[in-house]
Amino acid sequence: MLDLFRSRCVPPWVVALAVILAWAPLSAAANAIPFDVAVGFLYDDNVNRAERDNLREGDAIWSLAGSAGYRRQLGDRQGIIARIGLESDLHTDFGDLNVLRTTSSLTYLIQPTLGFSAPWFALTGSFHLEEYSASDIRDGSEAALGIEAGQRFTDRIAVRLGYTVRDRDASKARVFELHSGNFHIIGDYAVTQTVGAYLKYDYVDGGVVTGAPRTPKLMPVSRAVARDRVFGPRNVAWRVDGEVHKLRLGSKFSFSKRSALDISAQYSLTEADGDNQWNVWNVSVALNHRFE
């Protein structure tokens, strides 16, 4: 990745913003490929995923994302969607975690039978690259393959569920090489034509990373370790096997067919080997707009 990105003088969101703003009007003017832009804010009360309360670190994170999508119908009941994108996160307190991420995905959609309440199915493969401003041990890539099914039960209620396998490869540190399976279920409820609510549950089984000084409790069960100076000179990143439960409650407000505001809160609980356990609260706000 460019050395310019690694410079503290040029935050990653500036690079992402320049690319997105240059690309979006061209895409819209051509009237060929829709371009989605999202600006968000998230507060995470445990960015280092620490178990002990006195080690927890909270941070406010700004995000900017842009992606272009191509949709093609393959008959009346199936189609494909291809997307490429660029994302950037800017941390308020822990600038070493600023990240620039390139994303790509390909989705195959099919609805075996036509109808308002007929179920649909999707198979998605994705790949992304991540480069951090000053945390080389986190640089890497992730490949994922997932399947999802959904059905609309009434004009207000719809449900989706799916399972995704993720495989993350780290460039320099094995501690961030993570393999997991993720089951999710989402319930959508249309309050009005412009306001919606949703509830999402995730269950993740696989490798997780926690931050803490050297401790006998983690040593016997850790799969990999690395010095992680982002959270202090004594901090160590530990990879252990665990299970994660996430519950998110959110609401969407549509201003038009192209713009919407998403507000949500999430609680997650991680239960790892060796009787290690930690939780995370976060709240997020995101504004989404489509150029076409």
Describe the structure.
The protein is mainly beta and 292 residues long. The chain has one domain (3-291): Porin, CATH 2.40.160. It is 8% helix and 60% strand. The chain contains 2 helices and 13 strands. A 12-stranded antiparallel beta barrel has the order 1-2-3-4-5-6-7-8-9-11-12-13. The protein is globular, with a radius of gyration of 20 Å. The protein starts with a helix and ends with a strand. The model is unreliable at 1-9 (pLDDT under 50).
CATH hierarchy, class: Mainly Beta
Global mean pLDDT: 90
Biggest pleated sheet: 12 strands, antiparallel, barrel
Q: What is the name of the CATH architecture? A: Beta Barrel
CATH fold title: Porin
Point out poorly predicted stretches: 1-9
* Classification by helices and strands: mainly beta
Largest sheet, spatial ordering of strands: 1-2-3-4-5-6-7-8-9-11-12-13
Count helical runs: 2
The tally of structural domains comes to: 1
The proportion of residues in beta strands is: over 45%
Name of the CATH superfamily? monomeric porin ompg
DSSP, total strands: 13
